[in-house]
Structure formats: C-alpha cells, structure tokens
TrEMBL record:
It is found in: Periplasm. Keywords: Signal. Residues 1-36 form the signal peptide. Residues 50-263 form the SsuA/THI5-like domain. SUPFAM superfamilies: Periplasmic binding protein-like II (SSF53850). This is ABC transporter substrate-binding protein. Belongs to the bacterial solute-binding protein SsuA/TauA family. The keyword Methyltransferase does not apply. Pfam families: NMT1. It comes from Methyloligella solikamskensis. PANTHER family: ALIPHATIC SULFONATES-BINDING PROTEIN-RELATED, TAURINE-BINDING PERIPLASMIC PROTEIN.
Amino acid sequence: MSKPFLASRLKRLVALPALLAFALVLGFSPINSAKAADPTPVRVAMFSWPGYAFWFLAKEKNFVPEIELDIQIIEDPYQSFGLMQAGQLDVASSTAEYGPLAAAEGNDIRLVAYTNPSHGTDQIIVRPEIESAKDLKGKSVAVMEGGLTQIFMGIWLEQNGVSIKDVTFNNLIMDDAMAAMISGQVDGGEFWEPYAKNVKENLEGAKLMADSSTPFWSKNGLLADAMYMRKGFIEEDDGKIAALTLKAYFEAVKFWRENPEEANEIMAKALQFEIEDVELVVGDGSEVGGIVIYGFSDSAKFMGAMDGDPELEELGQHNGQIKDHYDLVSDWWVKFNLIDEKPAFEDGVSMKPMQVLVDSGYEGE
C-alpha cells in the first residue's frame, strides 16, 4: 500500500473498429493492415520535451491509419496519471519510475515500453558556493518527488557520503526548478536538457556535479523514459489497439532515424522549441543527443519480449532488464517512504501490447 502522500498527489491532479471484411477473409493481421473502417481515437499525454515528441511525428505522418492520435501537453505527469486512472486518457509518455507507484496504489496504469535511456541529458547542478555534496547538508535541492530525478539525487548524495535525511527535497516541475535554482531558492537540483543548459547559462559559476552519460548510469538504465497505458485500454480487442499505438510510436522513431532533419523540425514546431534544443536532446542524425532513442527491437529486448540484448553495447544493458529496473526503483520508493513494500512486477508492468506486436511479426527498424 502506498503512503498518503502518493494518494494526495493523484488527487491533484474505444473500441477497435472492424477491419474490412475482405481483409479478414484473406487472413491479414490487424496489426499490419493499413485499412480500417474508422480510426479509433487514442488519447495521449506528454509534457513538453523532445524525448516524447515522436508522438507528433506519428500523428502528422499517420503511420498507422487504424488509430487517430489526440495529443495533449500536460506538464505534471501526476496529472496525466490521474486522468488516465479516471479513464480520460489512454496513454502517457513520462519517466520510467511510475510502475511501482501505480501498483502500490492499486490503480490501472501499467508501464508497457522502455523508450529511451538518458545519456547525458540528466544533470545534477549546484550553486557556485557549493563545493561538494557534503555542502548540501541542511540545504534544499529541487527534484520531482515521486520521479526519477529524486532517485538520481538520492543515489548521488549517498555515493558522496550524504544521507537523504540531511537534505530537503523541494518538489518542483522543471520550469519552476530552473527558476528556483537561478533565484537562489534552492542550492542544487536535478535538471534535464535544455533546462540544464539554461541553468548553467543564467547562473554564473553553477557547477555540474554528475550527469547520466557515465557507465554507472548507462548500465543500470535507471534514468529513462517509458510509455504507460491504462489497463482498460490495454485489454481492448485483446490488445490490438494498444499494439497499434505502440507501432505508431516506433514507426515515428524509424522515420526520425531515416529523416532526422525533417523529423526534428516537425518536433521543434510542435513543441515550440528551438531546433537546437531538440537536437541537444535527441541528436541531429550524425551524433547521439542527451538520450539514446530506442527503436522497437531494442525496447522489446529490454522488456524481454524479444530475444537478445539491446544492440547499443556501450550502454551495457541486457535482455529483460526492465525487471531489474523495477526492483531498483521500488527499493528507492520504499527508502523514500512513498510505498511500504515492493509491489509485484505484473501489477506495475504489462507485457501484453509489446508481445502482441512482436507476435504480429513487426520488427520495427
């Protein structure tokens, strides 16, 4: 059972159309067919960050005509999760830590895909007068409580001899965290790009203390993004709509890999970001950005739905690592007193959409 804190945060906060008869007679797979009577609406939420903007590519290019994406920008992921639990959203892209919290709360939200590990975009930055982690004792740091930024900060503090009990964690979304850091309301924080860049440019003497590009963070895969779906949506038409939604996302990733300049322009326009800030996060096609974009096969291997290890060997990740990730995150939520005990894996993660798509023969790249 989760603590009252989690419940209070949550309070803050379509069936598959029939395919053409002749296609069914011929035995075409609904996952691979591009013909549908009327597209099924799929309601997607994300906050304004390039790592999630592949949804805009999927919508603009209409890679999967069987579904119609309705995309909303919601800056607080807990608001998105609350709307999902209320049945008002179907899918959310967010950071990859919510599965155990959803399971502990007993709600119907499941992590269904690991989409991109951080590789430098996540950074711990402190004010000029802070020389080491020990200087943060008795001071405040900006994180998103119940988010990966809190765990990143907690691990870094403990690695440097500071207990999480010796520091005050201020719960701030990224815009507010950046403002609090620059104005001196907090003494440090965890920031992802382009907010990290903005903090360093606007706070003279700001110090970078840690980032997610080092082997320790790359291998454990803690800092990453994921896709979530509500249970009712996952079960629609035996998982076919959820699988089609996954396919739309990963077709967008495939398009981005083949057409990075056009794709980044579409994503920048949709987010109202500068193109340089989009490239800073996702890369420009010639260099990896601050995150590593997983295509379908790498995600499926990380989730354990496909044989083999993710192919990016420099990350050092392995098949089925989502279970290790779930355990690591769960242990820290117990440590932060957000949940009482580690929930069962299947109560926070659903393999069904990924497995339906794999079984359909889809390979992505």
